[in-house]
Amino acid sequence: MIIQKCEIQMEDLTNYIEKNLTNQTKIVNDLFQHKNEIKKIVELLIKARNNGKIIYTMGNGGSSSTASHFSSDLLKTAIIKKEKRFKSISLVDNFSVISAWSNDDSYDNIFSEQIENFVTKGDIVICFSGSGKSKNIVKALQMAKKKGAICIGITGMTGGMMEKISDVTILIDSNDMLTIESIHLMLCHCFISVLRNIGKPLFDYK
Fold first, then answer.
1. How far apart are CA 123 and CA 130, in angstroms?
2. What average pLDDT does this structure show over 97-115?
3. CA end-to-end span of the chain, whole Å?
4. Exposed/middle/buried for 6, CB within 10 Å: 0-12, 13-18, 19+?
5. Contact indicator for 149, 155 with CB cutoff of 8 Å
6. Which of 81, 83, 75 is nearest to 55 (CA)?
7. In the list 104, 117, 125, 163, which could disulfide-bond 144, CB 3.0-4.6 Å?
8. Mind listing the pLDDT tens digit for each residue in 47-105?
9. Is the separation of the CB atoms in 24 and 176 below 8 Å?
10. Do the beta carbons of residue 149 and residue 110 sit within 8 Å?
């Protein structure tokens, strides 16, 4: 009886794995419909680099790690020989500032208040959010628009207010947060790979 139960559980595991991989493959294939948005974002990144503008990134939870990762890639992996370097700041990385605003004011303002400090006209603000509904993300985008920044939203599910505020949005057609976050990181690596392929990268990872 115990052996039979274990066999059934193992069969269920295989089914879950196949279902997950099949679903993620479908979502990846669906990205082809966002080719124009991907191209537009890469063009905006290049324009910001060439004009000395700063690219700010932010997100909550898993999206915060994506924001930090993407900023890191812009600062190092995307360096192209004989081109200007990207200027990027991840607004999730200064824990002292985040905890200060959370403790003394509100977690809803942890990004918008930093944007008010830093952002100038023509800068780029990139927000990552699985749902697009996070209050601190929405407030950050609203502040960024007020400051004259270009707003890029990378989201999923319905996109919430994020899709309505952003100048360019890529919405992952899924309600599964793990899948959405995985595809967001894949998109970031797509941006970086395209940037590396249109020049001579300083770093070779072969």
1. 23
2. 98
3. 52
4. exposed
5. no
6. 75
7. 125
8. 999 999 999 999 999 999 999 999 999 999 999 999 999 999 999 999 999 999 999 99
9. no
10. no
How far is residue 200's CA from residue 83's CA, in Å, rounded to a whole number?
Answer: 9
CA distance linking residue 123 with residue 142, whole number of Å:
14
Here the tokens at position 54 are 């700063």
The mean per-residue pLDDT over the stretch 144-171 comes to 96
Please classify residue 56 by burial: count the beta carbons closer than 10 Å to its beta carbon, then call 0-12 exposed, 13-18 middle and 19+ buried.
Answer: buried
Length of the chain, in residues: 206
Q: What percent of the chain clears pLDDT 90, i.e. is strictly above it?
A: 89
Confidence of residue 10 (pLDDT cuts 50, 70, 90): low
Tokens, residue 87: 């200027």
How high is the mean pLDDT of the chain? 94
The values of phi and psi at residue 97, to 5°, are -65, -45
Spell out the residues 6+ positions from residue 206 whose beta carbon is closer than 8 angstroms to its own: none
In the chain the beta strands, taken as DSSP E runs, fall at 54-59, 87-90, 124-128, 150-156, 168-172
